[in-house]
Structure formats: C-alpha cells, structure tokens
Design brief:
144 residues; Aminopeptidase; 33% helix
Amino acid sequence: MIRPITENDIYELYTINKEELGYDYPLEKSLAQLRKILNDSNHHFLTLYENETSQKVLGYVHAEIYEEIYAEPTLNVLALAVTSDDQNTGVGAKLMRWLEDTAVANGFTSIRLNSGMTRENAHGFYEHIGYTHTKDQKKFIKKL
C-alpha cells in the first residue's frame, strides 16, 4: 500500500537509507530534515510503500521540483529505495508509477534522476520502467 510519509516513519527511513543506500546520517538529524521536508509540500513529493498486513515499510520515493532557466520544470528523484528483501517484487515500480502519476497531475512533463555509476542493477530497473540514460557526469562537492 502506498501512503504518505509521517514523522513516525523516521526509524524505518533511516534504516533503509543506511542499509540500502549507504547513507549513515544520524537518526536525530534525519528526523530534523524529514520535518523540514514535510513542511515544504509545495516543493517536495514524498511517499512510501508499506505491507498492508504487517505495516512494514518496504521502500520509499522522494522527489523535488527541479527548475532551470533553460528547461521546463520537472521532478527530480532524490531517493528511491526498497529493502533488499523486497527488491524485484514490484515495490519500486509502484513507487515510481505513483510519482509519475503525481507529476502528471501537477503539470510536469518529465522526471529526471541520477544514479551512481556502480548501481548497475538500479540502471537496469530504470531502463525497464521506461527511463532513458541521457548522459554521464561527475559530481563535485566542496566541504565548507
């Protein structure tokens, strides 16, 4: 079942981010970020997939509005994560279908996402659900 994320989901989101995406960001800071994002519903789109029987969180998707001077606004996927046990069961596809339907309902004509070069299984998944690889790029960060 797809449902909106609430603050009460933070531990499950923290665990998925750590175990599936490799982001070991502190739980209390994750909660602060989640609260901030949940209060910005005009810019962020956030939902999760939960097992209806056990209420176990199986995955989630998070996107934001992405605007540039040279292109129409689009949704940018910031995270799509599904627990290892529930990958290849349709959870990720259902979450992305929800995001696509939400994008269309809000007047967006495309969705973009970045996926790390080593996440080859994810690349195959995105292509399988209709996304096209358009370019390779490097990511640069400067710690301040």
